[in-house]
Amino acid sequence: MDFGHTCNRDDVNPLNCNQLTRDGESISEIISAGSVPRKANSWITMDFSVMSILSNGLDWFKVEYDPPLARAVVFGVPIGGHLVVEALLVIAILFLLLQKSYKPPKRPLTEKEIDMLCEEWVPESLIPPLTEEMKYESPVLDSAAGPHTVIDGREVVNFASTNYLGLIGNEKLHESCTAAVEKYGVGSCGPRGFYGTIDVHLDCEERIAKFLGTPDSILYSFGISTMFSAIPALCKKGDIIVADEGVHWAIQNGLHLSRSTIVYFKHNDMESLGNTLEKITRENKRVTKVRRYIVVEAIYQNSGQLAPLDVIVKLKEKYRFRVLLDETNSIGVLGDCGRGLSEHYRIPVEKIDVITAAMGSALATDGGFCTGSVKVVDHQRLGSSGYVFSASLPPYLASAAITAFDILEENPHLITKLKRNITLLLEGLSDLPGLSIASNPQSPLVFLKLKRTTGSFQNDLQLLEDIADLMLKEDSVFVVASKRSTLDKCRLPVGIRITINRCRKSMS
């Protein structure tokens, strides 16, 4: 096939295919004459149709959008048809943007529509779905939680209550409570700042400060509220708190409510604490301008370990942090006279900035206290929610706390008996198959954990609960697994918690 012109891709306008000829014939004429093979004929016909459409569109665009006005020159710039189109598009966009958004007309719903919406509405549950774990019911005591108690009509040995000194059932406590009820009644019916302060409250605060050797103290009406009221009162947004990852839930809640910057270190690991303090001091440029705290427990409720207060005080002084120490499980237990962790390590109590404790353990009463400097205490009287807004501690419980401190101070041999029983029990548990002792040898809160984990937190807990239930049914020994709330973020291994008291008969 010989064309009159050669077709060069770079020289020929692809939209004007009629310029290709053979002896004066156009491509369309060649195709209609049937001089091209069938496959080539099909391809050329399709290509030619597309190019014809594009060519016709371009010609129409030139006719419509290249009027004399479009070829005008404005400020030395020639205006082509495409500029006119772009200007029209910009105007259309601005017009649409400036239009008010469409709002459907407002009209009240009909009764039928209201009924339909009510039928479709499903209220969200106020509580999470109940699991089998949540349905677990702990044994109910039919008597006082002394060294021996009654469960389901059967007397058992009680290793579940934190009655470390055996003061539950003490005659002096009973007499003190009876006299207080006869004098003051049962409750105070008002917060401390609103006619709820009774003279026995002031006497109890003075007695606590005198026993621990601190300038002042403050009473709280509920033990667990002491920690999550005192911490937010002293720590605010922007402050830095370095806390042990094993602290119990009340402290966790206080840390959350404080809105401070919380940094956790490995459980009872002083190397981890030192590295954390070093990193915060080095990397935070504002560290010297904000309040900084180290929060630990004297005896950890979730492990039975003792905090090494001597090392903590050295780190505190080196990096200039304050220490907040929870002594819930150590007051009446540690030290020669039961004054807690500071006495145990022979460290002056002035080196500890804030001390908190619940009085429901060794003191066999209720409520809690915070002790420290006068400024620390006075600040809480104005800014602690648990103190300002809660009804004050019932007077008979404050009176019982005073009597408990008196008994403890007059009878230091109670602590000696307790320590002897701790040693005796640990010897008996040293070769227990399948379980190992994870707590400190001086802790009255003995913590047994599995030597070999099942690989699952829930399975470990279920196994430990089965062991505790078996001990209660077959041996009449009441112990509990370290069951935690769904809100508790502590990730330490679970175990069986055994609390020791001074009663020698229970140990035997």
Structure description:
- With 508 residues, the chain is of the alpha/beta class.
- Among the domains are: 148-166 and 412-507, Aspartate Aminotransferase, domain 1 (Alpha-Beta Complex), CATH 3.90.1150.10; 171-410, Aspartate Aminotransferase, domain 2 (3-Layer(aba) Sandwich).
- The protein has helices at residues 27-33, 38-65, 81-97, 111-120, 171-184, 192-196, 199-212, 223-234, 249-258, 270-283, 309-319, 341-344, 374-383, 385-388, 395-410, 413-429, 457-475, 504-507, and strands at 21-22, 25-26, 73-74, 77-78, 148-151, 154-158, 216-220, 240-244, 261-265, 292-297, 322-326, 354-358, 368-372, 435-437, 445-450, 477-478, 480-481, 496-499.
- The strands form 5 sheets. Strands 7-13-12-11-10-8-9 form a 7-stranded mixed beta sheet, with helices on both faces. A 4-stranded antiparallel beta sheet has the order 14-15-18-17. A 3-stranded mixed beta sheet has the order 5-6-16, covered by helices on one side.
- Helix 5 (171-184) packs antiparallel against helix 15 (395-410), helix 7 (199-212) packs parallel to helix 15 (395-410) and helix 8 runs parallel beside helix 9 (249-258).
- It holds the Pfam family Aminotran_1_2.
- InterPro entries: Aminotransferase_I/II_large, AON_synthase_class-II, PyrdxlP-dep_Trfase, PyrdxlP-dep_Trfase_major, PyrdxlP-dep_Trfase_small.
- Its cofactor is pyridoxal 5'-phosphate.
- It is found in: Endoplasmic reticulum membrane.
